[in-house]
């Protein structure tokens, strides 16, 4: 079988930038509107609910259309290469 269609379900890992995200258009619209109005938005839900997937596969690509988006920084992991150049307060 040549060029099999990739499985849209990534399993137990979070969706990444560039992954297709289905069925979250309403949430993306709401968060985008909140960001435009409030500038800071807190996403809070139980672990595994899809916050990271929503941001990485949905919100970041949408925001990049109109804004400069800084690299994703996780406070519980070592900084990714180049992150210290974008945010000098990473330690």
Question: What would you say this structure looks like, in words?
Answer:
- By secondary structure, the protein is mainly α.
- It has a domain at 25-86.
- It contains three helices and no strands.
- The chain has helices spanning 25-38, 51-64, 83-86.
- Helix 1 crosses helix 2.
- The protein is globular, with a radius of gyration of 15 Å.
Helix content: 25-40%
Query: How many strands, what sense, and barrel or not for the largest sheet?
Result: none
Mass-distribution shape:
globular
Count of DSSP-assigned helices:
3
By DSSP, the count of extended strands is: 0
Fraction of residues in β-strands? under 5%
Instruction: Round the Cα radius of gyration to an integer and report it.
Output: 15 Å
Secondary-structure element string: HHH
Defining key terms:
mainly alpha, 35% helix, 0% strand, single chain, 91 residues
Concise structural overview:
This protein has three helices and no strands. By secondary structure, the chain is mainly α.
Layout: helices, strands, pairs:
Elements: H1 25-38, H2 51-64, H3 83-86
């Amino acid at each position: 079988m040549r060029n099999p269609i990739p499985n849209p379900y990534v399993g137990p890992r979070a969706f990444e930038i560039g992954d297709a995200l289905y069925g979250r258009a309403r949430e993306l619209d709401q968060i985008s509107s909140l960001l435009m109005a409030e500038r800071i938005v807190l996403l809070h839900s139980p672990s595994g609910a899809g916050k990271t997937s929503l941001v990485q596969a949905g919100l970041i690509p949408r925001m990049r259309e109109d804004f400069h988006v800084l690299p994703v920084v996780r406070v519980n992991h070592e900084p990714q290469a180049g992150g210290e150049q974008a945010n000098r307060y990473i330690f």
